[in-house]
Amino acid sequence: MTDSDHALLRTADAHWRESNQMKVLNTDIAKQLGATSMGARMWRLHPGQASTKHRHFEQEELYVLLEGRGRIRLGEADPLTLEPLDTMLVPPAVVRQVFNDTDKDALWLVVGAPAEAANTLEMTAEQLAQLYPDGPQALPPQLHG
Question: Angle at Cα 140 formed by Cα 139 and Cα 143, nearest 5°?
Fold first, then answer.
């Protein structure tokens, strides 16, 4: 529901879909609420799943683990483990990837500003190479069979 002084997205009305590259269930809450200056998604990673390993041109991202045990790689450093309601701010140029190497789902809220295009199917080869240094489907070592 949108009003002149706010926008409300009820849980039951949120549209969830699998991401283009990694097939991770997510909902683009910023788009559904009509946000124009930031991006915001919730990501539900099932056991064995990972988001894309990526960076941004200008967008800072705030990561909030809502449920489960969260794991994130930053650059080539060892992964960090987050507990529910832990938060992390990641600058644009830092390569990052959340993943789930546990036996339970992990639910993340990721908010970024300023908003940047996120549809890999609409990016040029140059944009893909810049944002996804190992390709848009790279898995962390923790999830390699």
Answer: 85
Question: What is the tens place of the pLDDT at every residue in 35-57?
Answer: 999 999 999 999 999 999 999 99
pLDDT digits (tens, 9 = 90+) for 14-30: 999 999 899 999 999 99
pTM of the predicted protein model: 0.91
DSSP letters for 119-138: -GGG--HHHHHHH-TT-TTP
> Hunting for tokens 């940047």 — which residue is that?
116
Structure tokens at 72: 């994130």
**90 with 47: CB under 8 angstroms?**
no
Residue 21, class by beta-carbon neighbours within 10 Å (0-12 exposed, 13-18 middle, 19+ buried)?
middle
Dist. CA 18–CA 72, nearest whole Å: 20
Query: How far apart, in whole angstroms, are the C-alpha atoms of residue 23 and residue 51?
Result: 9
